[in-house]
Specification:
Elements lengths: L12 E5 L4 H12 L3 E6 L11 E2 L2 E2 L1 E4 L5 H14 L5 E4 L14 H26 L6 E6 L12 H20 L4 E8 L5 H8 L2 H8 L10 H11 L11 E4 L7 H5 L6
Parallel strand pairs: 1-2, 1-6, 2-5, 6-7, 7-8, 8-9
Antiparallel strand pairs: 3-4
Length: 265
């Protein structure tokens, strides 16, 4: 795609967690298209090799691993170490949460959401950093955050809180792990994926109404997030660390503007 032109990751190794679907799949394909060797992980192995992300005749390498399980995470990193002399980029993308109001959510659900979206990526990042610190070229770690960390997140409160924790961690890790390892985040707004449409957005009429609330007039596509990751992991962003790139099409129109009786547009 033309939006990915100018990025060359030939000879680089990239790990994308949750890289089989949605945003993660687009990120994996973008790095493949840019020449990288890409590893993706997920809890369930694909039934068909054609389900693995691919681009320009090259496919990602799938590793079955639940990042919440430290033994599985360590085994995954050991497998990557056997296949590649370096681990140059890690994109912490795995995550998500079902809709559940806090008053109705069980303690087990709240804990599970926070573990998947905050604890697990931090533990994996710690392990990846240990390897990257030993590499001559260091490395880059990117975290997929969310605008849910920056505004109220009704129905996904634990998710929003976990992502807020990730954004704070990004700023801290950028200090602790510098100068050899850069750390940054991307925070998507509404992204049109199969999962988000089924769990959170709804039918085509709802999608059109939601798009009308975005200044740029549409929901993000997974490739929009992938392009940002290509930039942040590239030499063009070599002085970017501790940053959070918000990708929300211009944000949300303040609700009070529609309720006010003056200055309406």
């Amino acid at each position: 795609m033309t939006g990915f032109a100018g990025f060359d990751y030939t000879g680089r190794t990239v790990l994308v967690t949750g890289g089989m679907r949605g945003i993660g799949r687009a990120i994996s394909a973008a790095f493949l298209r840019a020449g990288a060797q890409v590893f993706v992980c997920g809890r369930t192995a694909p039934t068909d090799n054609s389900d693995v992300p691919a681009a320009d005749g090259r496919s990602a390498h799938f590793i079955a691993a639940d990042i919440r399980d430290l033994e599985q995470a360590d085994a995954m990193l050991a497998q990557i170490a056997q296949a590649s002399p370096t681990l140059d980029v890690v994109v912490h993308n795995a995550g998500g949460a079902p809709f559940a109001l806090v008053a109705d959510a069980s303690p087990r659900l709240l804990e599970s959401v926070i573990r998947l979206n905050l604890v697990a990526p931090l533990q994996l990042a710690q392990r990846c950093n240990a390897r990257m610190q030993q590499q001559a070229g260091g490395g880059t770690q990117l975290f997929v955050g969310s605008v849910s960390a920056l505004r109220p997140s009704p129905g996904t409160a634990a998710y929003g809180a976990a992502k807020a924790g990730i954004l704070n961690a990004v700023r801290t890790l950028a200090v602790e792990w510098a100068p050899r390892v850069r750390v940054a985040a991307v925070s998507p707004g509404m992204v049109l994926t199969e999962t988000s449409q089924q769990q959170h957005y709804g039918d085509p009429a709802a999608l059109r109404s939601m798009a009308a609330t975005v200044p740029l007039g549409r929901l993000a596509l997974p490739d929009d997030i992938a392009a940002a990751c290509l930039f942040l992991a590239s030499p063009q962003a070599s002085y970017v660390s501790g940053a959070n790139l918000v990708i929300d099409g211009g944000g949300e129109r303040p609700a009070f503007l529609d309720a006010a009786s003056v200055n309406r547009t």
